[in-house]
From TrEMBL:
Database matches in InterPro entries: AAA+_ATPase (IPR003593), ABC_carbohydrate_import_ATPase (IPR050107), ABC_transporter-like_ATP-bd (IPR003439), ABC_transporter-like_CS (IPR017871), P-loop_NTPase (IPR027417)
Gene3D superfamilies found in the cross-reference section: P-loop containing nucleotide triphosphate hydrolases
Species this protein is from: Micromonospora tulbaghiae
CDD domains found in the cross-reference section: ABC_Carb_Monos_I
Protein name per the record: Monosaccharide ABC transporter ATP-binding protein, CUT2 family
One Pfam short name: ABC_tran
Length: 281
């Protein structure tokens, strides 16, 4: 192609560039393709797909029961898909359990938060990953370094601007919003590659929601991929780069927030708009 020819815009150029957010050359850090999963007679997932790239925030939207949490659970190794493929950094992976997903650097805040009521905030944050004390006796007796746990938990909680009662009191004494803030703090502390948050602001007030959204943006700036399930369009437009929409167990569209309107998203959620061609099922 001559220089002159290359400089002449051709019809479709603008559309092509719009579609290239983020660039298609980047290998997705996480991909789900054609995932199906039934629970008895309930077909929770029929054909769900999702692509997540490093340094982006992807919102996963859809009506109640659309299959969003189930899809996230398959990516977290909690639910085994009946069919379909999961790829991490382009390589197919089978997660036998949540430990495999954690090993792959995937951290998840579940919709039910998965906190243990009879444990303290710090114990919940470090559950299964407790640091041992430094001294030889601590090593020998496998004594947990409670001070380090408390300090690091406090830092993670401060980062998201949450106010919790004493970190050593039982989680059962916390409010719904405080529990949610703690679960988000835990994920942001451990997430190395990918952080998935299932409705992270559902129980939070305006101020706490604002902090969580800021943290999501900060994770993105650290090149972590963030997947956020949300019903809140305002939050989605504030932090997400793209939106994947699910309906009745299927991925029905993928939009960029820079190009889409709330109406476009709502139409896909409700089925007023036909499934978009952009899905990778
Ligand atoms: N363990 C299970 N056993 C039986 N049915 C299940 C199970 N988990 C999910 N389902 C069903 O699968 C469907 C999808 O559920 P899922 O929780 O993934 O939806 P969702 O999109 O996250 O909804 P919401 O917005 O209400 O959280 C629902 O019909 C639900 O009842
Ligand atoms: Mg859900």
């Amino acid at each position: 192609m001559t220089e002159q020819a290359a400089a002449v815009p051709r019809p479709g150029d603008v559309e092509r560039r719009r579609d290239e957010v983020p660039p298609p050359t980047t290998t997705p850090v996480l991909q789900a393709r054609g995932i199906a999963r039934s629970f008895g007679a309930v077909r929770a997932l029929r054909d769900a797909s999702l692509t997540l790239r490093r340094g982006e925030v992807m919102a996963l939207m859809g009506d109640n029961g659309a299959g969003k949490s189930t899809l996230v659970k398959t990516l977290a190794g909690v639910v085994t898909p009946d069919r379909g493929e999961i790829l991490v950094d382009g390589a197919p992976r089978r997660f036998a359990g949540p430990a495999d997903a954690l090993d792959a650097g995937i951290e998840t805040v579940y919709q039910d938060l998965s906190l243990i009521d009879s444990m303290s905030a710090a114990e919940n944050v470090f559950l299964g990953r407790e640091p041992l004390g430094r001294g030889p006796m601590s090593r020998l007796l496998r004594l947990v370094d409670r001070r380090a746990m408390a300090e690091r938990t406090q830092k993670a909680v401060d980062r998201i601007g949450a106010r919790l009662p004493s970190l050593s009191s039982h989680v059962s004494s916390m409010s719904g919003g405080q529990r949610q803030a703690l679960a988000v703090a835990r994920a942001t502390m451990w997430g190395r590659n990918i952080v998935m948050l299932d409705e992270p602001t559902a129980a939070l007030g305006v101020t706490e929601s604002g902090h969580v959204l800021e943290i999501i943006t900060a994770l993105k700036q650290q090149d972590i991929a963030v997947l956020m399930i949300s019903h809140n369009l305002e939050h989605v437009f504030r932090v997400a780069d793209r939106v994947t929409v699910m309906r009745q167990g299927r991925t029905v569209g993928e939009l960029t927030t820079a190009e889409a309107s709330s109406g476009d998203i709502v139409a896909l959620i409700t089925g007023a708009a036909p499934a978009a061609a952009a899905t990778e099922s």
